[in-house]
Amino acid sequence: MRWLDCDRTGSLWCVTAEDVLEILAALDGTDVWIGGGWGVDALVGRQTRPHDDLDLMHREEQEPRVLAALAELGFTETLSWRPVRFVVTDPAGREIDLHPLRFAADGSAEQSSLAPGEPFRYPASCFVTGTILATEVPCLSKEQQLHFHQGYEPRERDLHDLALLGDLSAG
Known about the structure:
Elements (H helix, E strand, L loop, with lengths): L16 H10 L5 E4 H9 L9 E6 L3 H10 L3 E6 L3 E5 L5 E9 L5 E3 L8 E3 L4 E6 L2 E6 L1 H7 L7 H15 L1
Parallel strand pairs: 2-5
Antiparallel strand pairs: 1-2, 3-4, 4-5, 5-6, 6-7, 8-9
């Protein structure tokens, strides 16, 4: 059903482009932004690799609505690293990595981190749109994606995403 070749990413299941649009439709009326691999593909405008999850940033105060909408699709919480992030999974194995954001009046946001007093920062300009299956979707900017790809040893898929972001920067 969703096997594709996600086994190369360490997961037996994939989150497909159709899945992303289904999830976003269920979350209509809430503020969410796609990050991670799907966020990069949204900026590029096409799927470039298999994805074993979907990273979504959301307004912290809308979390009850986000969780209720995802529960309607069968998602339940399977991992909690609150307040930094948490994961929900559905019976088919689809995973969504959720990142709660606290917004300031100027449109910027912060996300808690594991380092006390050192939150992840999101400038107001990083909340942009991209395209998945010819549908405009909310996502994080290339600058924010590049920022989040710093400070760790990149995996093969990270190198792939960085190359795509570099191509966007050059274009």
